[in-house]
Amino acid sequence: MMEKIPTQSSARDQLMRDLKNVISDAESWLRGSNLTGEDLKAAKAKFERTLVGAKDSIIRMEEAVVEKTRATAKATDVYVTENPWKAIGISAAVGVLVGALISRR
């Protein structure tokens, strides 16, 4: 079965939800610092689950970014290999533009 790769915006939205949940749980836990016994254990367990979820979201986003970076680098390598003179021309043009921008300051 093929795993669905989350889009960047959905992964970012999930991460933001997880981080908000972590913050909310931490605030609740700190406010209810007079919790004892089973209530304290339940609050701690919920906080830990939320924190693990946030960490997992961060790891998934990191993996997605690494994968996209690898794909972009491979595509760039293929393009430069197939079109070396175009790549040199584009690099020279970018260099001239950057030089012009730097010299204006």
Describe the protein.
- This protein is mostly helical and 105 residues long.
- Helix content is 87%, strand content 0%.
- The radius of gyration is 24 Å and the shape is elongated.
- The model has no long low-confidence stretch (mean pLDDT 81).
Keywords:
single chain, 105 residues, mainly alpha, elongated
What Rg is obtained from the alpha carbons, in whole angstroms?
A: 24 Å
The coarse silhouette is: elongated
Strand content: under 5%
Order of helices and strands: HHH
Q: Number of folding domains? A: 1
Provide the residue-averaged pLDDT.
81
Q: From the helix content, strand content and strand pairing, which structural class follows?
A: mainly alpha
Distance between the amino and carboxyl termini: 56 Å
Helical run tally:
3
- Helix % is over 70%
According to DSSP, the number of beta strands is 0
Largest sheet: none
**Which segments are poorly predicted (pLDDT under 50) over 5 or more consecutive residues?**
none
